[in-house]
Amino acid sequence: MRVVDYQRATIVPDITGTIATTLTFDGGGGTTGSITLTAQRRGQYVTLQIPAVTGTSGTGSTALVSNTALAAAFRPLVNQFGVLVSIVNNNAAVAASGAVQIGTGGIVTLLRDSASTTFTNTSVCGTAQAQSVTYFVG
Predict the structure, then answer these.
(1) What is the pLDDT of residues 85-111, one digit of tens each?
(2) Distance (Å, rounded) from C-alpha 94 to C-alpha 96?
(3) Helix (H, G, I), strand (E, B), or coil: what is residue 69?
(4) Are 124 and 88 in contact (CB under 8 A)?
(5) I need a labelling partner for 71 at 20 to 30 A (CA). Which of 13, 42, 79, 99 fits?
(6) 86-109 burial string, b = 16+ CB within 10 Å, else e?
């Protein structure tokens, strides 16, 4: 299927891609096993599928950061943020929503919450289930 972008008067084809990556805790800590992120671009919007992923956090870790960038077609012109509803900290579900940032360089960052609260040191942290987020690429 093709979507017409009337602002630019061009036809923008649908694009699907996957990226195999690991995620590393910032501030020290472990790396997750390999995961596959799936991206579907439709016009100027991308839906990113994030699988359930956990690892052992380190001291002061506030985020899990992808070690491989998304392809250029899936990168936004400005940083984009979304909500993650299923976050794990200290091997237990967190009541508050987490956040995901998709950076202009294609790096995906998973946060415990929008306030950058640290994960519990040396505990299992991440996402409990697969989640999707849709963002504007411009």
Answers:
(1) 999 999 999 988 999 999 999 999 999
(2) 6
(3) coil
(4) yes
(5) 99
(6) ebbbeeeebeeebbbbbbeebbbb
The pTM of the full predicted model, rounded to 2 decimals, is 0.87
E runs forming strands in the chain: 2-5, 10-13, 15-21, 23-25, 35-42, 45-50, 53-56, 63-66, 80-84, 87-89, 92-93, 98-102, 108-111, 124-127, 131-136
DSSP structural state of residue 120: P
Task: Write the pLDDT tens digit of every residue in 11-57.
Answer: 667 999 999 999 999 987 788 888 999 999 999 999 999 999 999 99
Q: Is 122 left (phi over 0), alpha (psi -120 to 50) or beta?
A: left
